[in-house]
Structure prediction request, 247 residues.
Amino acid sequence: MLYGICPLSVVPVRAEASDASEMVTQLLYGDHFEIIETQSKWIKIRIAFDGYEGWLDKKQAFEIDEVIFNNLTNETTYSTDLLSLMTTASGQLMPVCIGSFLPASKILKHQFDGATNKDFSKNHLVETAMLYLNSPYLWGGKSPFGIDCSGFTQMVYKISGVKLFRDSSEQAKQGQALSFIEESEPGDLAFFDNEEGKIIHVGIMMKDNYIIHAHGHVRIDRIDHSGIFNTETGRYSHNLRVIKKIV
Prediction:
């Protein structure tokens, strides 16, 4: 088995081995992965953090061995500034965004200059979520420059050292379901479904029946037993299915 890490700020992972293919997720700096298939210009990867699979341009990967891969899997140190600087071995500066995986910098011989995550506290979840406020929605995105709803929740929890699956339908299988919205605490996850009953959206509960979620951009809206109420349009934008306590 071959392994690798992402040596760049943000790179796309695609559904097929083509630049024109749909972006299904992203790698941030330091994310590590197994290489499960190789083509001339592309590699199919399985991301260590969440098991997500997709295709990556070979030029955007740095190969590592199994020992390094396994050692990285036990690390949980991430950058917490929206944007920080990494100095490469040749002295060049490279920007890295919030949620970058810092233990990889030793392997890549890079020097990091910025803030890192603290010991876990559920109170930090909403604080971290607020850092993404007004980030534009981007299908498959995981950075403050473009992020989707489940990428947003996954990154907020990841920075706090808690693993979530990549997609909202999978995240909805984690944690403990709450019977009433009044039982929820800031940091709990609210899931929303479509007319067919499929989970299609997720957001993070806040105090006083507010929710922060990625819909057009990362925004704060009201939430009640029916779902998310958008005060700008005067309509419900999402139908509430369940609220889950993850931690």
Q: What stands out?
A: The chain has two domains: 2-113, 123-245. The chain has a mean pLDDT of 96. Helices lie at 66-73, 104-108, 123-131, 149-159, 168-171. DSSP finds five helices and 19 strands in the chain.
